[in-house]
Write a structure and sequence with these properties.
It contains six helices and no strands. Helix content is 80%, strand content 0%. With 179 residues, the chain is mainly alpha-helical.
Length: 179
């Protein structure tokens, strides 16, 4: 990604991450006050990852494998914690969605799809370890709509990335012609 895009997108990603954590915090507070350890653990993991990525952001579009693996790691950890905290019915499900958007915006369609598979697998593993069951994850139309929204977020952010990359290629080509 061009430096100008990276510079303007990083604050937006941080704001989205913090918004998702804030949403989860507000909606999980009643459970935490009732003594739910799953709500507290999920909040702690989401706060840690969000704080860490605010201080040390992922370099979107970096050609190094370590940056891409870090983005996949964020998806896996957040999805596992969200699965442990209720899965698709957890108020922290949007933290996973933002992590998926980061992967697909940073590296495109294929990496977004890989991130989505990693996220779903990690979330199912977290659900299996938590108090819920896997069958409870798909018992309502709301659950299907959340999965489809995640898929749409991945596809949309990858499409935006593709359009930005194409615009940058055209700009560079035109810059050499104008004199």
């Amino acid at each position: 990604l061009p430096p100008s895009v990276r510079a303007s997108v990083s604050p937006t990603i941080s704001a989205l991450r913090w918004g998702a954590v804030g949403y989860g915090l507000v909606l999980s507070a009643p459970d935490a006050f009732k003594g739910s350890y799953t709500a507290v653990v999920t909040l702690a993991v989401c706060l840690f990852i969000t704080t860490w990525r605010t201080i040390i952001p992922i370099r979107l579009g970096s050609p190094t494998l370590s940056e891409r693996l870090a983005a996949y790691g964020d998806v896996a950890v957040l999805a596992f914690a969200t699965g442990y905290g209720g899965g698709l019915e957890s108020p922290f499900v949007f933290t996973v969605m933002i992590a998926l958007v980061v992967v697909s915006f940073g590296w495109g369609y294929l990496d977004g799809a890989i991130g989505l598979v990693i996220g779903c697998g990690s979330m199912l593993a977290g659900v299996a370890l938590g108090a819920g069951t896997v069958s409870q994850q798909f018992d309502a139309q709301r659950d299907l709509s959340i999965v489809l929204t995640m898929l749409l977020a991945v596809l949309t952010s990858a499409a935006v990335r593709s359009r930005l990359m194409e615009s940058e290629r055209r700009r560079v080509a035109l810059a050499g012609q104008v004199e």
